[in-house]
Design brief:
The complex is a heterodimer of chains A (323) and B (295). With 323 residues, chain A is α+β, with helices and mostly antiparallel strands. Chain A is built from four helices and 20 strands. The two termini of chain A are 27 Å apart. Chain B is of the alpha+beta class and 295 residues long. Chain B contains nine helices and twelve strands. In chain B, a hairpin with a 3-residue loop joins strand 1 and strand 2.
């Protein structure tokens, strides 16, 4: 068991997520940075999709009640074991009674703490991921609270302390992020000026940035072409008849601040989406800190598929290394 | 408006490499919903490898897919094939469900007073405002219209298990209200909401922008699946369900809540066939024949 002494800002149990229930309003959930989750799991000998702790911005303080191998990947948030800083992207042993806490992130927003054997909460709809809006999955359907006792599964024993990610497989986080976007959906509803300025201006992450979505500010307003609004679409030109929202889709309520929906997305609504972040870049979004800067780069569907192939190659390298 | 929509091709657009988005129509109508439903059901029947989720919305739909298993272009062609085949479908085997509602209840009233500064008309309640802008004499007349004809569940989503509903009346009788000027940060669980031409039931407590008219005692989303009608799935509603609201008083509401707590509450649910052509031919009389199924 692991006892939660302090929960941190928003720590939750996540695996790779659940598919097949988005049509009922239940989003995929799962680690916002899927690569980091996989990497941390590999380091402790878990299957890539084992449940781990996603620790956002302010990490938790945890008391281990058993000996176990752990690893932290993702955001550069120093892991301190009884006050001693541990090497990032490297497995280390924790003894029963030791306390693990985190320093502030110098880059990235979410660290993933994997423990050998995985966080052993029950699967709900095929996943151990937390979907807090629906009080579903994870630890009692919510982010962690002080006093929670997290059960740990049976370790595989495949790796040992010191197992480490090669530099080529570590993530570079921080700085200005280029996010690739396939324009589409209701992109044609933007004025020509807005269609251009969205991609030429720099945007910064606002304070409303969580697992549901990331709000960006700092660019000029994006105007939609005026029209007589269709029946049922609502009165603002940025409104549409409520439709489904793709994961990674970008909406601009009232033309003001773009919102990128992430893996806990609201599954639909009445705001026109102007494009979708490519699957290979979704990990980057969840690692952005408030006030970090982004630029959006328009790419074709072909380029999105090419980027996905490169991303999958990197995953294959990880798997081979620890297979 | 009956004919053209059936033959107007759907507008497709890829939501990057994992979603195919399809707009049946840019405006809401029963026809648009019906066509989207027919096409998505046809797509489901194809059982394509790599299709992760087929999500139906009011006048559009979306397919979430794994491009490693099905190429986007191959998926698009398959869906267009399904579209060509499905436009002929004009009837639906479904169920009609009676949902009890305590209109004008104290909990949504407390909430709407708390967020009055975000409302178009701070001087009246959501019900009074909705009655007035829809040209109805008073709150009672509005409730009579709201519960007078059944509603189609035209989408399930926003959050887990939340049904969007579209009333089975001619367009000129559709109840329409704008959303709050700024969304509330709180809405009681199981609130009956309304925004644009859509009704909804808030499946969980949380933020919301729809006008609030009442509450139902009937849980519609429950990961614990305690009640009989939630045993099959934690999410009760499916697109295509037909809902008939039944106004109840406070005593009946309290009794129903007590029944829910003791796990013996149940809903009145009957199988029914809906015919789009029968509705279009007689939009006043036909819904009444559906209501009779519940009697």
């Amino acid at each position: 068991m692991i006892k939660v002494l302090k929960p941190g800002l928003a720590t939750s149990v996540q695996d790779l997520g659940r598919e097949g229930y988005y049509h009922l309003g239940i989003p995929p959930s799962g680690a916002l940075d899927q690569y980091a989750l996989r990497a941390a799991n590999h380091l402790v000998g878990n299957p890539a999709g084992a449940a781990a702790l996603e620790c956002a911005l302010v990490g938790p303080e945890l008391e281990f009640q058993q000996d176990v191998l752990v690893a932290v990947c993702g955001a550069q948030m120093p892991a301190l074991l009884d006050g001693r800083e541990q090497r990032p992207d490297t497995a280390f042993a924790v003894r029963a009674g030791q306390v693990l806490r985190f320093g502030f992130p110098t880059a990235g927003a979410r660290a993933y703490l994997a423990v050998a054997g995985g966080i052993d909460v029950p699967e709900v709809l095929g996943s151990r991921s937390t979907y807090a809006l629906g009080a579903l999955g994870g630890f009692q359907g919510r982010k962690l609270m002080a006093g929670d006792l997290l059960p740990v599964g049976v370790p595989s024993g495949k790796t040992r302390a010191g197992a480490s990610l090669p530099m080529a497989l570590r993530q570079a986080l921080g700085g200005e992020v280029v996010v690739r976007v396939v324009p589409g959906l209701y992109f044609h509803r933007l004025t020509e000026a807005a269609a251009q300025s969205f991609f030429t201006q720099a945007w910064t992450v606002g304070s409303e940035a969580d697992r549901i979505g990331y709000r960006y500010k700092g660019g000029s307003a994006l105007s939609f072409q005026p029209r007589e609004q269709p029946f049922g679409a609502g009165s603002d030109p940025s409104n549409i008849v409520d439709s489904c929202y793709p994961i990674g889709s970008i909406q601009v309520p009232a033309g003001l601040e773009p919102i990128i929906l992430h893996r806990d997305a609201v599954s639909g609504g009445g705001y026109a989406m102007i494009g979708t972040v490519i699957s290979a870049d979704l990990d980057l979004i969840g690692q952005m800190q408030p006030n970090q800067q982004a630029r959006f780069l328009a790419v074709s569907l072909e380029q999105a598929l090419e980027a996905r192939r490169s991303y999958k190659k990197k995953l294959a390298c990880l798997a081979r290394l620890f297979g | 408006m009956a004919e053209p929509l059936a033959i107007t091709p759907i507008r497709y657009s890829f939501g990057a490499d994992e979603h195919l988005f399809a707009e049946v129509s840019d405006s809401m109508s029963l026809e648009a919903f019906f066509k989207g439903m027919a096409v998505t059901r046809a797509v489901e029947r194809l059982a394509l490898d790599g299709v992760l989720d087929v999500c139906l919305a009011n006048a559009s739909f979306q397919i979430r897919f794994d491009p490693d298993r099905i190429a986007p272009q191959a998926l698009l062609e398959a869906v267009q094939g399904a579209e060509a085949e499905a436009v002929a479908e004009r009837s639906l085997q479904t169920r009609i469900i009676e949902i009890p509602v305590l209109y004008n209840d104290p909990w949504t009233h407390e909430t709407l007073m708390r967020f009055r500064d975000r409302h178009q008309d701070p001087a009246s309640t959501d019900l009074e405002y909705a009655a007035r802008i829809n040209g109805l004499a008073d709150v009672d007349a509005f409730i009579a219209a709201h519960s007078g004809a059944p509603w189609f569940v035209s989408m399930v989503g926003f959050v887990a298990g939340l049904p969007f509903m579209f009333q089975m009346v001619e367009r000129q009788r559709q109840l329409q209200v704008p959303k709050y000027l700024r969304p509330r940060t709180d809405t009681p669980k199981l609130t009956l909401g309304h925004g644009g031409c859509f009704g909804c039931i808030y499946s969980v407590r949380g933020a919301g922008g729809y006008q609030m008219f009442g509450v139902t005692p009937a849980p519609i989303y429950d990961p614990q699946q305690t009640l009989n009608y939630l045993k099959a799935h934690m999410v009760f509603f499916r697109p295509g369900d037909i809902v008939q609201f039944k106004p109840i008083d406070r005593r009946a509401y309290d009794q129903a809540v007590a029944d829910v707590e003791e796990g013996r509450f149940d809903l009145r649910i009957r199988p029914v066939e809906f015919s789009l052509d029968a509705f279009l031919a007689d939009p006043v009389g036909y819904p009444k024949s559906l209501q009779e199924v519940l009697a």
